[in-house]
What does this fold into?
Amino acid sequence: MATMVQCRRCGQTREGMAFQPFPSDTGRRVFEQICGTCWAEWTKFQQQLINHYGLNVRDPKAREFLLKNMDQFLFGADAGAGAEAGGTAEGGGGS
It folds into this structure.
C-alpha cells in the first residue's frame, strides 16, 4: 500500500504513488509531494501534449518541454522550485 501524502497540487491528503516516477531530484519531489490521482491526471495530459505536438520523447528538447509542463501542471506557482537540480525525466514519465 502506498503512503499518504499531502498533495501540493490538489491540497488533499491522498494515497501517494507506489514508486518514484523517475530517478532524479524532481522524481523524488513528485513522489513525496504529489498524490497518485494528480499523477494520473498528469500522465494523461502528458500524452495529449506528446500527441498534439508530435513530440519525440528521445529528443532532449522534447523531454525538457515535458519536464517544464509537468512542473507547471503539478506545482503551479511553485514550479521550478526543485527542477533546477538535474531535473530531467530520464526513464520516462509514466507513459
